[in-house]
Amino acid sequence: MPDGLVINGRGWNGNTFRVEPWKTYRFRISNVGLATSINFRFEGHKMKLVEAEGAHTVQNVYNSLDVHLGQSYSVLVTMDQPAKDYYIAISTRFTTKVLTTIAVLHYSNSRQGVSGPVPRGPTTQINWSLNQARTIRRNLTASGPRPNPQGSYHYGMIKTTRTITLANSAPWINGKQRYAVNGVSFTPADTPLKLADYFNIPGVFNVGSIPMSPNSGGNAYLQTSVMGANFREFVEIVFQNWEDTVQSWHVDGHAFFVVGMDGGQWTAASRLRYNLRDTVSRCTVQVYPRSWTAIYMALDNVGMWNIRSENWARQYLGQQLYLRVYSAAHSWRDELPIPKNALLCGRARRRHTRPLL
């Protein structure tokens, strides 16, 4: 299969899925690959989207579905076609050479195997995928109190406390290919950052060692990049991509609301096109080539959290940073202490953890 794919469901045997006529099956599709977006489709069958990374979605029907790095969806498929075998096709997206692999949807009363051409995927144009992504919205009639499914908390009515802009790039540093965020290419420290922060160990990292907006003038450089923010802030993060490849970003420890995405340069006027009513919440989001994606995120989790590219080569070579969400209260209500049997390393090796009550 191209890159990486997980298909969960009853009846899966090798590359064949045995189904009963007129029954409806739930497929959960996850792109667990290293570098490539994929397109997923069933020959002759429609997919009804019902879930995106734990969020109930508007139940739109699709012929094929783009799944970007680190993302998961659940779809319902009804076996309402004539009894025979059908292709399940998965193709790479936005690659110079399109790779396709297949599985088989086998009706229990089928007497005819798969035949003919494999169903083709969508065009390589970005707009098709961008427009599909905008149709993925939260189902406001599911899993919430009525008449207000979001209760007293509505992301579109909360004022953001700051805007953070993160731009990816692919600089050469010291004669080697690196990847960077806002001109900073991440290098690991000799001590895990959470341990250094917890024990107040100096010299491991500096809060503010990465700017909150792109570095337009200076050269890219290596740094253990840590950005500071305060507990219970509600921030707007804009991912700006000027490269020719699709980016996929993951934020540890938090779910966020994908409020907008479009081509070109993000500006303050872009907020006029935000979806402030029913966007989905998720932890991984794509940014199309020469485009931007904006998210709203409540910093409701104290700690040291990684923001990284889901493309593993880019992540390994520096396209990541840490967001330090800080609370001056140091309350166990906000963050539990490190367990007393935790393994310590680096400069924290001879420190002693505080015992749990």
TrEMBL record:
GO MF: copper ion binding; oxidoreductase activity
Organism name: Linum tenue
Matches recorded under InterPro entries: Cu-oxidase_2nd, Cu-oxidase_C, Cu-oxidase_fam, Cupredoxin
Similarity annotation: Belongs to the multicopper oxidase family.
Name of the protein in its database record: Uncharacterized protein
Keyword Methyltransferase: no
SUPFAM superfamilies reported in the protein's UniProt record: Cupredoxins
UniProt keyword annotations, A-Z: Glycoprotein
Secretion signal span: none
The Plastocyanin-like domain, residue ranges: 1-110, 191-328
Entry annotated with the keyword Glycoprotein: yes
Pfam families registered for this protein in UniProt: Cu-oxidase (PF00394), Cu-oxidase_2 (PF07731)
